[in-house]
Amino acid sequence: MSKARWLSLLAFLLMFVLVTGCSSKQSSSKHSSPKTEQKKTVKKTKPTKKTLATELKDSPKKTLVYSPLGDSLSVGLLADSKENRFSSQFTRTIAKETGKKVTEEGASSVGKTATNFGLPNVNTIIAQKPDIITVEFGTNDAADVTNPKALPAYQNSIHQILDQLQSQTKAKIILMTTWSPSNGDYVQNDLRFDKVVIKEGKDRNLPVVNLSKIWQGNPNVTGSTNNTSYNVWGSKDDFHPNQAGHDQIAKALTKVLNQEIK
């Protein structure tokens, strides 16, 4: 074989080796490349905020009972109608927030105190098998300004009321402080009695609606001298919450109903 043919054959073989090697490398590269896995995005669901409303909603009971225990505020003076007193507004709010039927029962009376009405009527509330209770006393208790035993008596009565309600019911309990006009005669004494309620709330981990945040410095939420008030309640004065006052109380209760329990 001539030298030229040898060179041509050698060139051909060299080219063949190069092409084959390159092709093999590409094939190997294709097979060896790792598969790209698609990452699945898992959406984290926010845990449901635990509130009085959610706990009442989760109750197995189809019908809930709300029992306000208190004095003339809980009776409803001086709302424009009984249907629009704070307790009745709050009843409708509980129904809306829980999607359940709610009946309003309770025990309240004009001019009464924790000692002469609240404590003797605890068993009335217990017998109603309530799911939620508001305890509202102190306004008339604090009016007994010349009696040095009034504050200790109130403190003892509120303590006993809550002891019995907590031990003999499974109800959610909301405490409420005293009511007064912004320029009332007993404002300073009211605030002393409020401290009792606030302390009980803190010690027992119970929510407190501080009504002084509504009436202090706000003369527009107290008193009604119109005929509507007289026709509904048989009285009119410049002391009790008017409709605006009842609306504000109901709003404050709704806030507690929906605030997170920690």
Automatic annotation (TrEMBL):
In the record, what terms sit under GO molecular function?
Answer: phosphatidylcholine lysophospholipase activity
Q: Extract the InterPro entries matched here.
A: Ester_Hydrolysis_Enzymes, SGNH_hydro, SGNH_hydro_sf
Residue intervals of the SGNH hydrolase-type esterase domain: 69-247
Q: Which Pfam families match?
A: Lipase_GDSL_2
The segments labelled Disordered in the record are: 24-48
Leader sequence segment? 1-21
Superkingdom to which the source organism belongs: Bacteria
Coiled-coil annotated spans: none
Alphabetically sorted, this entry's keywords are: Signal
**Protein known as:** SGNH hydrolase-type esterase domain-containing protein
